[in-house]
Amino acid sequence: SEGKEHEAVLRLARVGYDNTVGHLKGGIDTWKAAGRALDHVENITAEGLAQLNPPHIVDVRKPGEFEAGHVAQAVSYPLDFINDHLNDLHKGHNHYVHCKSGYRSVIAISILKKQGYTGLVDVLGGYSSMEKTNIPLVDVCTKGA
Q1: Which of 21, 51, 52, 116 has the fewest CB atoms within 10 Å, i.e. is most exposed?
Q2: What are phi and psi of 109, to 5 degrees?
Q3: Is the pLDDT of residue 53 over 80?
Q4: What is the DSSP string of 94-140?
Q5: Could you report the per-residue pLDDT of 106-142, keeping only the tens digit for each?
Q6: DSSP states of 62-98 as a string?
């Protein structure tokens, strides 16, 4: 959005993207007016995810966050290193992607889509929302305590 450019650059830097080279004046409206292609991100609530059996879950939080606690069947592919895991993900499968609250997961999905992945679904509210459901979690901090 207009006036939010600096905030966007800061947010990108916080997740490891330090080389932002510019922004599109007028944002998405300018993009649409130029007739450029648009895409969207599918999403699911944590409650909806809890009803699936068992989905492939990709956790894009930092390693320390994953180690502190994660969804039992999740794989850890931190956003900062998502490109290192492109050969680990199957392009033909559905992947349910989450971070802590939903910001990094959308960036990860955008990167994966650019690489030809389909079937990517963002978990709304991320791990913070999944903790409030019956999704099996591994709480490493208290494991064995």
Answers
A1: 21
A2: -60, -40
A3: no
A4: -EEEE-SSSHHHHHHHHHHHHTT---EEEETTHHHHHTTSS--EE-T
A5: 999 999 999 999 999 999 999 999 999 999 999 866 5
A6: -HHHHHH-EETT-EE--GGGGGGGGGGS-TTS-EEEE
Q: In terms of pLDDT, which residue wins out, 78 or 2?
A: 78
Give the pair of three-digit tokens for residue 49.
Answer: 């995810």
SS3 50: helix
Nearest to 134 by CA among 41, 52, 57: 52
Please, what is the Cα angle at 74 between 97 and 116, to 5 degrees? 40
Structure-model confidence comparison of residues 23 and 35, the more confident one: 35
Q: What pLDDT digit, counting tens, does each position of 37-48 carry?
A: 999 999 999 999
Burial 97-116 (b: 16+ CB within 10 A, else e): bbbbebebbbbbbebbeeee
What would the two tokens of residue 64 be? 């320390």
Name the pairing type of β-strands 70-71 and 137-138. Answer: antiparallel
